[in-house]
Amino acid sequence: MFVQIENLQYQYKNTSELTIKDFSLNIEKGETIAILGESGSGKSTLLRLIAGLEIPQSGLISINGIKFVDDRTFVAPEKRGIGMVFQDYALFPHMTVEKNIKFGLRSMTRRKKQERIEEMLTLVNLADYKKRYPYELSGGQQQRVALARALAPAPSLLIFDEPFSNLDASLQVKIRDDLRAILKQTGITSIFVTHDQADAKALADRIVYIEKGVVQHIMSLNSGVKSPKVYC
């Protein structure tokens, strides 16, 4: 199993209840998982735990056989090799598209970095925009840059936090279709959280329905199983 999450528990300070309760999930290499739930269900907290931005009270997180979290282990976020795409894109406004993508590339020769940048620009269909700044791009193009920047270092896992929430409805459909094609083309394992069931069904191989930090149901989109839960 490529990603293993076992018995994860997390509680924020000054709260009386666990935000994540005994969460367990196994993910195959190359699989896309959607975490679906209402606001406050714990889905974004789960991503933060996987990324290392929060430390769980207990549980295990392992990726590709490497333990990132258990009772005796905690690997810092920058050493986990996880790519992140946020809902606000988090692009550097003073950097061009090319330089935004280059930012995460380290331990490479100048030539290798440029080759990787060109590869990513072609992948997200932005080769003609590399000298532009974020303010000169549409929302959909900015999201493509954020995706290219996250993919450039070849992360072991890619995570998305509400990636389409800032896009118009008409653009949202096109971008999510393009994103699924890119994820399958690269073969990267990915997890994204959303409150939109249509997004989850369009992108994911499986949907994990979460409520108040507890897994309610897991639906495989290849099996035709219908979920009893619907979130708006």
Automatic annotation (TrEMBL):
Xref: Pfam families: ABC_tran
**A molecular function (GO) term:** ATP binding
Q: Which SUPFAM superfamilies match?
A: P-loop containing nucleoside triphosphate hydrolases
> Domain named ABC transporter: which ranges?
3-232
InterPro entries under this entry?
AAA+_ATPase (IPR003593), ABC_SmlMolc_Importer (IPR050093), ABC_transporter-like_ATP-bd (IPR003439), ABC_transporter-like_CS (IPR017871), ABC_transpr_FbpC (IPR015853), P-loop_NTPase (IPR027417)
Could you tell me which PANTHER family the record lists for this protein? PUTRESCINE TRANSPORT ATP-BINDING PROTEIN POTG, SPERMIDINE/PUTRESCINE IMPORT ATP-BINDING PROTEIN POTA
* Name assigned to this protein: Carnitine transport ATP-binding protein OpuCA
Source organism of the structure: Litchfieldia salsa
What lineage does the source organism belong to?
Answer: Bacteria, Bacillati, Bacillota, Bacilli, Bacillales
